[in-house]
């Protein structure tokens, strides 16, 4: 995996092979960050990276100037890799070893961007639980986005607060926003 833009542009990172991950492809990541770049100033964001895996998405935000990043994953090896990489690149990513659903139940931490990239083989009900918990617990800041990456065979457009989806190869990003207060 490589960092696409920012102060670490072009930096290649190699995660240990034994980690249970499927990193977002560079093509999909580049497309996603082009969308976000047109909407946000990265240095003003608060980011929550769920099912963080290797930290691929967190590093991209940090390289582009985001300073408040929390990465959550249940795998200790993933958290260790994120901590080591974050320290080596002087990024300051806060990494938490936790079940994501338990974390969302208890967290009071609000974010501008919540990115979730669960394993594609978990049941649809688990995917549906992510936006349910985010909105029930009011974890998105005003003008924030919840982005869920999932397999192209899955459709989340029936869920509350869904606004759009974008397809990149075998992956889809589904976007959710807080309802307009007006």
TrEMBL record:
Any one GO molecular-function label of the UniProt entry: methyltransferase activity
Q: What species is given as this protein's source?
A: Zobellia amurskyensis
**Quick one: a GO biological-process term for this protein?**
rRNA methylation
PROSITE patterns, per this entry? N6_MTASE
Q: What is the official name of this protein in its record?
A: 16S rRNA (Guanine(966)-N(2))-methyltransferase RsmD
Q: What is the lineage of its organism?
A: Bacteria, Pseudomonadati, Bacteroidota, Flavobacteriia, Flavobacteriales
Alphabetically list the UniProt keywords: Methyltransferase, Transferase
Q: Which Gene3D superfamilies match?
A: Vaccinia Virus protein VP39
Q: Which SUPFAM superfamilies match?
A: S-adenosyl-L-methionine-dependent methyltransferases
């Amino acid at each position: 995996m490589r960092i696409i833009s920012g102060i670490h542009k072009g930096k290649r990172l190699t995660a240990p092979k034994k980690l249970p991950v499927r990193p977002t492809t560079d093509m999909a990541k580049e497309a996603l960050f082009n969308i976000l770049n047109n909407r946000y100033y990265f240095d003003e964001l608060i980011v929550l990276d769920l099912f963080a895996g290797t930290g691929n998405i967190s590093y991209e935000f940090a390289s582009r100037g985001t300073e408040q990043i929390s990465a959550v994953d249940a795998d200790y090896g993933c958290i260790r890799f994120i901590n080591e990489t974050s320290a080596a690149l002087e990024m300051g990513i806060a990494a938490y070893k936790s079940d994501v659903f338990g974390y969302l139940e208890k967290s009071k931490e609000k974010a501008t961007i919540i990115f979730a990239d669960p394993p594609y083989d978990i049941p649809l009900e688990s995917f549906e639980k992510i936006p349910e918990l985010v909105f029930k617990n009011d974890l998105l800041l005003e003008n924030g986005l919840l982005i869920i990456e999932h397999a192209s065979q899955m459709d989340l457009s029936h869920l509350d607060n869904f606004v759009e989806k974008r397809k990149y190869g075998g992956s889809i990003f589904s976007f959710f926003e807080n309802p307009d207060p007006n």
